[in-house]
Specification:
With about 200 residues, this protein is α/β, with parallel strands linked by helices. The protein has a single domain, classed as Rossmann fold (3-Layer(aba) Sandwich). It has helices spanning about 15-30, 50-60, 70-75, 90-100, 100-105, 125-140, 180-205, and strands at about 5-10, 30-35, 75-85, 90, 115-120, 145, 165-170. Strands 1, 2, 3, 4, 5, 6 and 7 form a 7-stranded mixed β-sheet that branches. The chain is globular.
């Protein structure tokens, strides 16, 4: 069975909602799935006015296991989710990326199908650069970058259109993710399952 890890960091719930949808879609597509959250940093900061939502999310997702290198090593395919932070992934995601060197440098992440998704406050507010920054990481991992492209009608819906990975415009409203974005990340997850399964088959002696 193809194994998929959905690894995410979410500050107020938007990325968490995308991650949950991706995990459910991957499981429905026949994969064994691990949904894992990236731990907060001790000095995490939040958009003013969202502190209560951040605290509520921490409480609601406390039972979601924290991601570690074993989850990446286990997976045939990986989806990584992050909020937009000034056009870059959030600091906890970058810290997690730094921790992957013992696995990635010996080639432990090579040839895995990997994809990224995000949520940010405004259109054209750094969604694409955030995903592309993670693509830089995936290049260093030696992974197979799997973009959404323009490969399914759902990607042409008015609230989608990003060819790099699913993204949602939150307008700084906690948990606000359009159903078209949910459909896009579900498609993205199915695509990762399919390609990861193909690669897994090629690697089988």
């Amino acid at each position: 069975m193809t194994t998929i890890a959905v690894i995410y960091y979410s500050s107020t719930g938007n990325v968490a909602r995308l991650a949950g949808a991706a995990a459910a879609a991957a499981e429905k597509a026949g994969a064994e799935v691990r949904l894992r959250r990236i731990a907060d940093l001790p000095d995490d900061t939040y958009v003013p006015g969202t502190e209560d939502a951040a605290r509520e999310l921490r409480e609601r997702t406390a039972d979601v296991p924290v991601a570690d290198l074993a989850d990446l090593a286990w997976a045939d395919g990986i989806l990584v989710g992050t909020p937009v932070r000034f056009g870059l992934p959030a600091a906890p995601v970058l810290r997690f990326v730094d921790s992957t060197a013992p696995l990635s440098i010996p080639g432990g992440l090579a040839n895995k199908a990997v994809s990224a998704f995000t949520s940010g406050s405004a259109p054209r507010g750094g969604h694409e650069t955030t995903i592309l920054a993670l693509h830089n990481v995936f290049c260093h991992w030696g992974s197979l970058i799997l973009a959404t492209g323009s490969t399914d009608p759902v990607l042409f819906q008015p609230n989608n259109g990003n060819p790099y990975g699913a993204s949602a415009v939150s307008r700084n409203v906690p948990g606000q993710v359009h159903e078209e974005n949910i459909a896009a990340v579900e498609y993205q997850a199915r695509r990762v399952v399919r390609v990861a399964g193909l690669v897994r088959g090629l690697d089988t002696p």
